[in-house]
Amino acid sequence: MSPATRRRGGDLEAAIYDAVFEQLEAVGYRRLTMEGIAAAARTGKAALYRRWPSKDELITDALKHVLPGPPGPPSTGKVREDMLAAVTVLRDTLTACRGAAFKVLKEEGQGGKGILHDVVRQRVSQPVKDVLYQALVAAAERGEIRPEAATRQIANVGPAVIVYHTLTEGGTITDAHLESVVDDVLMPLIRR
Predict the structure, then answer these.
(1) pTM attached to this predicted model
(2) Per-residue pLDDT for 24 more than 60?
(3) Which residues lie closer than 8 Å to 139 by C-beta, 6 or more apart?
(4) Each residue of 39-74: pLDDT tens digit?
């Protein structure tokens, strides 16, 4: 790359983050290397090591860069729509990071105790489960669902189904699939 076209700042960072996800898709977490990321980003590996001492720190920053903020509290006043909104945020998050967050966790092999696990839990899985739980509590208070259905365990079911689909099937999670998770899995669990 000639000096006249050299990328810097935000442009270089975006190319590096794109390369992280491209490489995760191509080779997986275990075979991911700083050299591979540098080559895919068309930069030198020294540029990576100046900012990120390890691939875990680079992947963590890449995930933080693409992950949307946590979902807001349930707001529609109808449990089905609130649950659908929450699982849509989860799907959109998986799409934004190309499923890399869960691919990394699947391969990380630290029994759920790595830095990447913490990022995914704090930015993705826990906020979505919290919103689902809040939606269930609000629906129980309105008399829309069985009071005993407002549990964290039931709130975890929707995200578990979506993550399982992502890990085992891959591909796009359609709106119809999300509606099926809500209508065919969650709603029967909570109905009066």
Answers:
(1) 0.72
(2) yes
(3) 79, 82, 145, 150, 190
(4) 999 999 999 999 999 998 998 888 888 777 777 788
- 11 is in which domain, residue-wise? 3-65
Residue 132's closest CA among 190, 69, 93, 192? 190
| Percent of the chain as helix, strand, coil, to the nearest 5 | 75, 0, 25
**N-to-C CA span, the chain:** 64
Q: Tell me which residue has tokens 């009071």.
A: 147
Distance CA 153, CA 65 (A): 30
Helix axes 152-168, 126-142, angle to 10 degrees: 140
Supply the pLDDT for residue 167. 76
What is the predicted pLDDT for the residue at 1? Answer: 46
The DSSP call for residue 98 is: T
Question: 79 and 158 share a domain?
Answer: yes
Q: Same domain for 142 and 55?
A: no
Region 28-41: mean pLDDT is: 92
Locate 6 and state its tokens. Answer: 């050299």
Q: What is the CATH number for 27? A: 1.10.10.60
